[in-house]
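During the reporting period the student researcher (J.K.) took over the structure-prediction task from the postdoctoral fellow and processed the backlog of single-chain submissions. One of the processed entries is reproduced below for the supervisory committee.
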Amino acid sequence: MKKTLLGLVLLFLAVSMTVAQTTDKWLHVKVDNTGDKTERVRVNIPLDLAEKILPAIHKDHLQAGKLKLGEAKINDIDLRAMMDAIRSAKDNEFVTVDSQHENVRVAKQGGNLVVKVSETKQGRKEQKVDISIPFSVIDALFSSGNKGELDLVAAVRALAAHGDTVLVTVTDGSSNVRIWVDSVAPAAQ
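J.K. obtained the following structure tokens:
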């Protein structure tokens, strides 16, 4: 039993090393929480590995690399048409909300859908969310022929073809989250 387990571990490490040496792009997720419970999470996945693994997952709304939006109320909204309209529009700021406690901005900028939200409480910044998704990735997400389904494998391929980019940053008091794609292997970071 121990020899079999050791053999499987060595096989996994060999495959991981081969994938790490041949991949060009990595998806990185970094979460730091310094609140009451200090937590640190790091996820570094080669995009070509993600592309191969996603079709093998068949759990709840994620089936064979496709995410079914399920209970989301999208029946009355054609998300593909909305994204196509925004993608084909000139760079612009489409939604701006400025209030005492919240600022929201939705825009198209440099081929990206940009969403920025900041929330202020009692005069200090409490939460900040920045999202910037390339439209090539959004188009790939909606490339599935089924309404209410996102093609995650196609989105991973589009991310691999895109340059290095920061997708999401979240700052919330004692928590920081960063999701990005680049060509830097985790050991070199």
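The committee noted the following: The helical segments are 2-22, 47-53, 79-88, 135-141, 152-161.
J.K. will present the remaining backlog at the next meeting.
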